[in-house]
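Cont'd.
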Amino acid sequence: MVSKNQIKLITGLQQKKYRKQHKLFIAEGIKVVQELLNSNFELQELYTTQTVFQGVTTAKIIPVTDAELKKISALTNPNSCLGVFKMPETKQVTEKGLIVALDDVRDPGNLGTIIRLCDWFGIENLVCSEQSVDLYNPKVVQATMGSIARVNVVYTDLENYITNTRLPVFGTFMDGENVYTQKLPQEGIIVMGNEANGISDAIAQKVTQKIAIPRFGKVQETESLNVATATAILLSEFCRNLNGR
Amino acid sequence: MVSKNQIKLITGLQQKKYRKQHKLFIAEGIKVVQELLNSNFELQELYTTQTVFQGVTTAKIIPVTDAELKKISALTNPNSCLGVFKMPETKQVTEKGLIVALDDVRDPGNLGTIIRLCDWFGIENLVCSEQSVDLYNPKVVQATMGSIARVNVVYTDLENYITNTRLPVFGTFMDGENVYTQKLPQEGIIVMGNEANGISDAIAQKVTQKIAIPRFGKVQETESLNVATATAILLSEFCRNLNGR
C-alpha cells in the first residue's frame, strides 16, 4: 500500500531540487536495484510487486500492486520494483590512471551510457562540469544498468579542475592528431564535450593534447559522432594496449 | 493549413503498417530534412513554420503554425519542419568491404546510432534481420541525424544471408578471441546481436570468427556493453589501420 504522501515524495524525486532536498534518488528494475544493493548504496525503501528480495530486511520492503507501482514509477513500462536510495556523500577524485571529464553533457542517456563504458574499461573516476545532467536523474540511473554503483562521479568547476591537474588533458577536435597513430599514456584526463557545441572555449584552452577520431566515410557531410559512441572509441583506444582481463 | 485527413495520414506514418501501405515516412528538423533533400530521397510534402527552404519547389511546401506542427509531429518538442518522403526501393547488398549485420536489434535509438556509425566509418551496407526495428520508424530516422541518406539498409532473412555469403562472419561472444590482438580483414560481415539476448543460436552457428571486446573493469558484474557502443568499438578496430581521411 502506498500513501498519497509517499507517491508525492517519490514522484518528486524525478526532479533534481527534490532529490537535493531529501538526499534521495530512485532506481528501478531488479537488475539496477540489485546492483545498488550489492554495493555501498543505502536503501531507504523498496517498493515491489514481488514477495522476496535478496539481501533486504523485510522492514524496508513495501509490497505494491502493478497499479501502485505505475503511480510512483518514472518509466513508461514500470518494472517489478522501485528502490528509494540515499544519496551517498561525494568522494574526491583520485588523480590516478585515466579519468573521463564531461564538459556539459546534457542527455541522461548519454551520461548513463558513458558511466557504463567507464565501468567496462575500468575507469574509476568521472568528473562532470556543474552544468552536466544530474547523476541521479532517473533516466541516467536506468541507463547505467547498475554501473552507477562502481564509478565515482564527481561534479565540480571543470575549468578549475582542469587548470590544476598535473595530468595531461586530452580533447577531441576536428583538427586534432589522429588518435590511432598517437602513443597514448596510461594516465590522463579525457574531456568529452556537449552534444551540440562540443568542448567549450574555456576548457579547450586547457587541453594539452588535441586528438581526433578520423572519419572514414567518403562524404564530408557526416555529422560528428554521438558523444557516447565517441567516448567508446576513445576509451577503447586508450585501453587496448593494457592487459585485458 | 493542415487538414484533418493530412493529420491522420501523417500521424499514421508513426506506425509501420501505414508506412508500408502508403510507402511514405516522416523526417523532422532542418538538419535531417536537409540531408534527405540533398540525397536521392524524394520529397512528397514539406510542412514548415519557416517561409523559405533551400532546394524545395514551393508547390511542395505547406506552411504551418507551431500548433499545427505539434499535431503532426512525432517529437515531444517539434522542430520547425516535418518532411513526408517516399520510401525508396530497397537496393541489394554489394558483397564488398565491411558489412554490419543486425540480429534483431529492437531499439530505434540503437539502430539510428549504428547507421550514424556506419556512415562515419564508411560502411556502405547494413543488413538487418526481419525482426529488427524498422528503418523508417521516426525515432530511427531522427537518431541517424541524416546518415540514413548515405547507408544502404536492407532487411532480409539474416540466417539465409549469412549462410550464403563468401565473406568471413565476425560476431562478439564472451569466449571470443581478444579483438585487439586479432588481424582483422578489410572485408567481412560484423554481426551485432539483440539488446537482451545477444546473437541468436542459429546465427551464432554461422559465425566463422568469434571475437570479444575485453573487459578492463575490476568487477566481474559489469554488464555487457550497449550494442551501439560495442559497434563503435568494433568498427573503430576494423578501420583503425585503414587510411583515414
